[in-house]
Amino acid sequence: MINLGNLRVPSSDEARENGKKGGLASGKARQEKKRLKEAVEKVLSMTYDTETGERLTGYEQAAIAIFKKAKLGDVPAFNSIRDLIGEKPKETVELESEAVTGIKIKFVDKSIPRNKKEKDPKIIGDYTPPTNTEE
């Protein structure tokens, strides 16, 4: 059981020191990930002899291995190939918020240069927040 009496807010110096420790640990973790990525890329870019006497890169051999698995019906292998060649289906979610909440929201595209000054997006219509009480 947690004893709430032992909980306290750290001072600004303690918070600063904890933030510094977290930042150093984060930097170390990023460096380790970078080194691992570079090592894997090096191994994949090297050439290797195959059983048939061909010389292929690790990338090519990995692609062949994934293809062989997909050919045997491995769906995750097929999905990997599909995603790698850029045929991943778009994942979109459409929501008609007006039907769900009764709120209409007007969005203004700020990326297009405008000559006239526009108002900020506003909620149009009436809104009554739902209650959490059961009837």
Which key features would you list for this structure?
135 residues; mainly alpha; two-stranded antiparallel ribbon; 4 helices; 47% helix
Please summarize what this structure is.
With 135 residues, the chain is mainly α.
Number of DSSP-assigned strands = 4
Mind summarizing the main beta sheet?
A: 2 strands, antiparallel
Number of helices: 4
The low-pLDDT segments are none
Radius of gyration: 28 Å
How much of the residues is beta strand, in percent?
5-15%
Query: H/E order of the elements?
Result: HEEHHHEE
Helical amount among residues, as a percent range?
40-55%
N-to-C span: 36 Å
> Overall pLDDT, averaged?
80
Write the layout of secondary structure elements.
Layout: H1 12-45, E1 47-49, E2 55-57, H2 58-71, H3 75-84, H4 97-101, E3 104-105, E4 123-124
Antiparallel strand pairs: 1-2, 3-4
Helix pairs in contact: 2-3
Description:
The structure is a single chain. This protein has four helices and four strands. The chain has helices spanning 12-45, 58-71, 75-84, 97-101; strands at 47-49, 55-57, 104-105, 123-124. The strands form two sheets. The protein has a two-stranded antiparallel ribbon with strand order 1-2. Strand 1 and strand 2 form a beta hairpin. Helix 2 (58-71) crosses helix 3. The longest helix is centred in the first third of the chain and has 34 residues, at 12-45.
